[in-house]
């Protein structure tokens, strides 16, 4: 099996049944904040776009590049479609002209012509990507197997392993979030949180690597790079141990320190071959890979200079002064708030958006989303639990394009600051991800179906429930206990085992007690 790196989470897989192009992303995403690194725009995308199959793992804009799919990917390619609870991904692809689909059933194998088998596992909780994330498993005719996990976080890897050894395991390792950079925190606290998140991302990926035991590990799906002057400090080129966007070389060096040396980095244009007998090789478009990464800042600066006209053009498109932000929000969002029973209760208070003038900290309008009264109104000076500050023109643009997912646009752009009282509240972001009736009703139904897990386990002198209240990860696998604190390494959530209280988010306490007390 041959794997050509095409940037970020994208790859071109050649099998006996033909080629599979995965997650092609080239154009800036999230209000021109994210760019793929290294620059992959100079690949022969018209040739790559003639792939036999297209796999788009989910709708995050660093995986679903509408402009690139429109211009460079053949509409006659066959789409391998994950089984998601909503039809959005299929609808978006059909709107671009794609018309051939293999609609997979999650975790069921499909055999393609030529003897190649594929399987897609679809994750479907409201916190998985934009209502969904997925992984692709491929078995070539000669028995070589690939797992493209990209940035999905399965709670159980056995579905991929029961069919035989994995020879190529591709997975995310770097951050893909806005925390802690945008939070209004002291620099030392922000650095400490960032360091913790960076280490947690490495540890989580290593857990997957140890579970899969693949012959070769490919770090993919990150990091993005930031080429706008205001966001450039987010790049990991300043020696900040709290930076959550380490590159592939930094991660591979860490893996080597953990005793894992079966790693392959894919630059755009790198070509790797893996075989069922465990052999593997790679050829890069550069002479010295480590030297190339040592010159990362130079590459970033050159890329930044090339992209300034594109960033300027994107910014020029954001302003829509004809839109009455408050009244439009009331018209479109208040009906959703009225039916968001579980989510609004989970938020449990008002959320404020302070809207500023372009490229300024001057607040020109403050709007409150009151999840107790289910109303949107101008700020009246009351206390709020969550506060966001962003440019008014960004909200104007979201309303102009009728964006239903502010997480997959505004929040991932990092073009805002945030403050909160108390713990992280997942319901806040769940709501702003579900600004359509279809999404909201699915999320409400998902939350309504959640039930406490009745099975307990014992670990390190403590008895507690086996399933994480967040996304049902098996804590016998992903749990780690230090000083009476349980951490779920799937997403880093924490509990005080003495009290059972969740230290990470409101409303997710667990059953727990000392094992001796349970025995008595």
Explain what you see.
Keywords: 2Fe-2S, Iron, Iron-sulfur, Metal-binding. The structure is a single chain. The longest helix is centred in the middle third of the chain and has 26 residues, at 187-212. The chain has 16 helices and 27 strands. The relative contact order is 0.11. α10 (341-347) packs across α13 (426-433). The protein is globular, with a radius of gyration of 23 Å. Helix content is 30%, strand content 23%. The protein is of the alpha+beta class. Strands 7-6-5-3-2-1-15-16 form an eight-stranded mixed sheet, with no helix packed on it. Strands 8-9-10-11-12-13 form a six-stranded mixed sheet. Strands 19-18-17-20-21 form a five-stranded mixed sheet. It has three domains: 2-306, Metallo-beta-lactamase, Chain A, CATH 3.60.15.10; 325-448, 2-Layer Sandwich (Nonspecific Lipid-transfer Protein, Chain A), CATH 3.30.1050.10; 456-517.
Cross-sheet strand order for the largest sheet: 7-6-5-3-2-1-15-16
- Rg, please? 23 Å
Number of domains: 3
* N-end to C-end Cα span: 57 Å
Report low-confidence residues grouped into runs of 5 or more: none
Helical content stands at 25-40%
Structural class: alpha+beta
Kindly state the number of beta strands.
27
CATH superfamily of the largest domain: Ribonuclease Z/Hydroxyacylglutathione hydrolase-like
């Amino acid at each position: 099996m041959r794997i050509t790196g095409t940037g970020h989470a994208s790859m071109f897989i050649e099998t006996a049944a033909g080629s599979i192009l995965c997650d092609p992303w080239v154009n800036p995403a999230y209000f021109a904040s994210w760019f793929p690194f290294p620059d992959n725009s100079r690949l022969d995308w018209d040739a790559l776009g003639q792939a036999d199959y297209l796999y788009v793992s989910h709708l995050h804009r660093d995986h679903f590049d509408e402009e690139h799919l429109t211009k460079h990917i053949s509409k006659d390619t066959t789409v391998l479609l994950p089984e998601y609870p909503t039809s959005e991904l299929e609808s978006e692809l059909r709107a671009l002209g794609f018309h051939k689909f293999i609609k997979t059933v999650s975790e069921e194998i499909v055999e393609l012509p030529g003897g190649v088998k594929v399987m897609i596992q679809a994750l479907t909780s409201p916190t998985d990507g934009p209502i969904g994330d997925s992984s692709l498993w491929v078995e070539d005719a000669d028995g070589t197997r690939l797992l493209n996990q990209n940035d999905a976080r399965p709670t159980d890897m056995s579905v991929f392993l029961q069919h035989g050894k994995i020879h190529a395991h591709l997975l995310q390792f770097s951050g893909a979030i806005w925390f802690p950079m945008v939070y209004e925190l002291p620099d030392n606290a922000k650095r400490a949180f960032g360091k913790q998140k960076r280490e947690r991302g490495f540890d989580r990926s290593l857990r997957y690597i140890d579970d899969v035991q693949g012959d070769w590990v490919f770090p993919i799906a990150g990091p993005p790079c930031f080429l706008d002057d205001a966001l450039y400090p987010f790049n990991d080129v300043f020696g900040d141990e709290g930076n959550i966007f380490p590159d592939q070389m930094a991660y591979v060096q860490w893996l080597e320190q953990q005793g894992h040396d079966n790693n392959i980095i894919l630059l755009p244009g790198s070509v790797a071959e893996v075989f069922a007998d465990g052999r593997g090789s790679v050829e890069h478009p550069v002479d010295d890979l480590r030297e190339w990464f040592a010159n990362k800042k130079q590459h970033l600066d050159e890329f930044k200079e090339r992209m300034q006209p594109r960033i300027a053009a994107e910014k020029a498109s954001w302003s829509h002064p004809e839109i009455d932000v408050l009244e439009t929000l009331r018209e479109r969002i208040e009906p959703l708030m009225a039916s968001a029973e579980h989510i609004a209760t989970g938020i449990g208070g008002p959320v404020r958006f302070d809207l500023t003038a372009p490229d300024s900290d001057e607040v020109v309008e403050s709007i409150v989303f009151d999840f107790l009264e289910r109303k949107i109104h101008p700020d009246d000076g009351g206390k709020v639990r969550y506060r966001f500050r962003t440019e008014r023109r960004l909200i104007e643009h979201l309303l102009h394009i009728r964006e239903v997912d502010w997480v997959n646009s505004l929040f991932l752009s990092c073009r805002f600051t945030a403050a909160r009282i108390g713990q992280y509240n997942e319901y806040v972001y769940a709501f702003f991800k579900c600004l359509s009736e279809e999404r909201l009703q699915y999320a409400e139904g998902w939350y309504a179906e959640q039930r406490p897990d009745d099975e307990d386990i014992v670990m390190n002198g403590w008895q507690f429930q086996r399933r994480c209240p967040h996304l049902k990860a098996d804590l016998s696998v992903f749990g780690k206990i230090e000083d009476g604190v349980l951490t779920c390494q799937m997403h880093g959530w924490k509990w005080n085992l003495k009290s059972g209280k969740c230290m990470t988010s409101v409303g997710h306490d667990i059953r727990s007690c000392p094992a001796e007390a349970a025995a008595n």
